[in-house]
Prior knowledge:
Blueprint: H1 22-32, E1 37-41, E2 44-47, H2 48-65, E3 73-77, H3 82-92, E4 97-101, H4 107-117, E5 121-124, H5 129-134, E6 142-145, H6 148-155, E7 171-176, E8 186-190, H7 191-205, E9 213-216, H8 223-234, E10 238-241, H9 247-256, E11 261-264, H10 266-273, H11 277-282, E12 290-293, H12 300-310, E13 315-321, E14 325-330, E15 344-345, E16 350-354, E17 367-372, E18 379-380, H13 384-390, E19 391-392, E20 395-396, E21 400-404, E22 410-415, E23 420-422, E24 425-427, H14 429-436, E25 442-452, E26 456-465, H15 473-480, E27 492-495, H16 509-516
Parallel strand pairs: 1-10, 3-4, 3-5, 4-7, 5-6, 9-10, 9-11, 11-12, 12-13, 26-27
Antiparallel strand pairs: 1-2, 7-8, 8-18, 13-14, 14-15, 16-17, 17-21, 19-20, 21-22, 23-24, 25-26
Helix pairs in contact: 1-2, 2-3
Amino acid sequence: MIRPSDTTGGLSRPNTFRPLTISGGIRAAAGRTPDKAALGMDGRQLRYRDLVDRIDRVSNAARAGLGLTRGERVALLAPNCPELVELVCGLSAVGIAAVMVNPRLTAPEIGYICADSGARAMLVHPALADLARAADLPGIERMIELGPDYEDWLAKAAATPPEVAVEEWDVFAMHYTAGTTGEPKGVLLPHRSRALTFFGMAVEYGCYSPADRALAIAPMFHGAGFAFAVAPVFFGGYCEILPRFDPERALELMADCAVTNTFMVPTHFQAVFALDEGVLNGHRTPALRTIVSNAAPLAQATKERIVGYFGEGILHETYGSTEAGIVCNLRPEDQLRKQQCVGLPFPCTEVRLLGDDGLDVAPGEVGELYSRSPYLFNGYWGRPEATAAALREGWLTVGDLARRDEEGYLYIVDRKKDMIISGGVNVYPREIEEWLLRHSAVAEAAVIGVPDEYWGEAVQACVVRRPGAKVTAGQLMAHCEGHLARYKLPRAIAFVDALPRNAAGKVLKRQMRDAFNGRGAS
């Protein structure tokens, strides 16, 4: 795990020094407007003074009630709810890391994460309690259900600020990678990087003043989903939480709650635009000033529809990772000017594109993207080799390939592990996917490489048709011909009901390759 040096260059810290912590930011906001609503869900609202009260009770209950100390871990298994905010903030305020568990996992997968993280306690939503009990959890000493059991646990704890020294580099939360390319790894996020990410977001997106109102749509167990839900509260604003995604309900809340900002992933937009035109026209969102998209690339056709429906000057497309935080952002004024682009580096972020020789590539050439910023993770839990492999002299990579144009704008070409080598030539699936998505009958598309005796790898496309569409593989092949070089053309197109995705909206290409392994192209 990466940690700062314990030395201070011979200088002692000034008495004015206060570490950046998430709970500290919320406490400051509560001091300014204690009776203002901080969080809301399903008609229930939590004022800032009450949120801080519950955060303090979580801190003290974890120490006195569970006997946990700084440096330990607690697993959280719940869908989107206000309790996730008070739990993560309360635990981290005393140096205890929250292990965020995906509520869509199976019992064995939950057992793996709890065992790997070494969590000693688990807090679980009642709807997931049976699933948790079905998991093999030998290290879990206490399981507490949200609801009466949880409220009783809080009521027995003191509501006073805990007297525990927490450093900026203490772990705030542990999010597990989705396992799209291998075994899930615990990503250690410190207070400092997450708090500074919030400041960077406030500068770049311009929507986190105390007067702003956010809608939390994305799963909060995920790093991005949690960050976009908590950043508004960190700065004294308001966040309405959507417990489960429903496209029409999301549009209703944007209008009814006068939402000024929200975070969505591409699958959310697809669900919104699948609604009837009458529904879309009946739910306009006049207060909305900022939409941030992340987790997976937006197809250019989808961007154009977002701009057409929600309006110009609203959409940001952000590229980043759990490990790196936010790396770059394409601002609204560039959305239609720069196609398939993810913009310029985020504030305080440096980006390099390196070739296989470790040297910077020229503009227009493809290289592996490395970033350096205050937003980086501490490392992977218990995996020093994986941490070392991701770093090059302080620069971090998660294996994405990109190019830079003459203006310095960045374009994610593909994941290095998703790149196809067919006949000795590099083929980047995203370029093919973008062209398939231009066909009016295509709702989703994913391209992978499959084993081929002659080419080594052949291009295999998987397509989800739009409802009622009857396009054939031959028609899609003809759609691609003349627009893509022949070596990039799919050798086969399979029609599927849905693409396998994780909860963050990323397509699980490893799972797709496993399904096609040994079949080749036909």
